[in-house]
Amino acid sequence: MKVIEDPKEMQIFSDEARHQNYKIGFVPTMGYLHQGHISLLDAARKETDQVVLSIFVNPTQFSPGEDLSVYPRDLPKDMDIAKKAGVNVVFTPDDNNIYGPNYQTNINLKQLPNHLCGIHRPIHFQGVATVVTKLFNIVKPHFAYFGEKDYQQLAVIRQMTQDLNFDINIVGCPIVREKDGLAMSSRNVYLSKTQRQSALSLSKVLKDTQKKVFDGITDVNKLVSDAKNYIESQPEAQVEYINICDKDTLDDISIINKDSLMALAVKIGRTRLIDNTILNTSSQ
Predict the structure, then answer these.
(1) Which of the following CATH numbers is that of domain 186-279: 3.40.50.2000, 3.20.20.70, 3.30.1300.10, 3.40.630.30?
(2) Which fold has domain 2-173?
(3) What is the mean pLDDT of the segment spanning 194-204?
(4) Is 19 a catalytic residue?
(5) Which of 19, 37, 115, 124 does the annotation list as catalytic?
(6) What is the mean pLDDT of residues 111-119?
(7) What would the 3-class secondary structure string for the chain be?
(8) pTM for the model
(9) Residue 275's pLDDT is what?
(10) Does residue 284 register a pLDDT over 90?
């Protein structure tokens, strides 16, 4: 497994791989790898010849007061996981490698960021779109793999890839959950035992809401209200948002009359967690 820090060296590696007609699969991460990340690496390994993993905690997607300074990091453990997962290259740039002292360019989308997490984290998707654009230009992948837990992020990247004519296939991979249903996240490490029990309310309301839809309850206000009341009955749980919306545009809806996205963000203590599901209108 090769470790590369310099963007130009990464570009040279990718140019040589492409010259040999190797397909490059890319998994961008902020590190502190877990089974969710491993599922992305597994998908890349099955479909491509050279798997590139990036580990970079991107400062531009964190707002002031968020957890950039304490975001969990464990590079030696990440390297061990990457090697066992069959990664060919780990790309580990630092802030200066990516942005430099006079960086001036950002990527902005007009509509998709104006929903869900984007309302509460106004600079987040500008930072995501910008760093992913840079990573795409550095790694030059044929395929890039992203988890569906970050549903809005995946939608933003798909739209950006289309708008900017990147010749890259964007692959969304299913949410990976713990045995108790909690969606895997690097931030789960922040949770105490009591907080983790409260965090299980996220996946529970997603399942309960799906059951209600199957039972014929389609009023979004009622479904959201029921979900909010349940989550906030748990210790230290505070809902940031619960939305049921169009799964493509992320626009709000009032009645569920087709498959729709239910997405939520909840703070358990100081830890912000997200989760989502597609609410199906038919059980068939």
Answers:
(1) 3.30.1300.10
(2) Rossmann fold (3.40.50)
(3) 98
(4) no
(5) 37
(6) 98
(7) CEEECCHHHHHHHHHHHHHCCCCEEEEEECCCCCHHHHHHHHHHHHHCCEEEEEECCCHHHCCCCCCCCCCCCCHHHHHHHHHHCCCCEEECCCHHHHCCCCCCCCCCCCCHHHCHHHHHCCCHHHHHHHHHHHHHHHHCCCEEEEECCCHHHHHHHHHHHHHCCCCCEEEEECCCECCCCCECCHHHHHCCHHHHHHHHHHHHHHHHHHHHHHCCCCEHHHHHHHHHHHHCCCCCEEEEEEEEECCCCCCECCECCCCEEEEEEEEECCEEEEEEEEECCCCC
(8) 0.97
(9) 98
(10) no
